[in-house]
Amino acid sequence: STLWEPQLFQLNPTTKSVTVLIQNDKGKWIQDEEDKIPVPLPYTKFKLINMLEEDIPVNEDAYYDAFDLFGQEYICRVLGAPLYVNKPNDISCPTCNHDMQYVSSITHDFEVDLVSVVDLLLGEMIIYFYFCKECLTLKTEIQGT
Q: What distance in Å separates the CA atoms of residue 143 and residue 5, rounded to the nearest whole number?
């Protein structure tokens, strides 16, 4: 249930560490044993590919087409234009109030097997990652599709 609320992390490049600032777990939900993702994750190779024209929405129809590919053809978008279910109202950093930058988003259609080393079941949601360059804070938020 931690995933459902925004999470906030502080990055420390000097100590190469990450500190959890906010991680609400209101539901105290514990994943079933067979669905737990192993820690540490198994090593696997991924490749970065440049977005194609159909991945970058330029109008409303193209936006829906790009949305259909996300989670089925690939699971992560890094930089570039985010695909929002609902555009966020506030992208200011909860720590220092500067604007946060979109970094990436991840989703996975549970009917498509794009990851073979673990069962990646995100359901019908997208996790968005934002970064504040001013205070080195990372924030995650989710939106359901």
A: 10
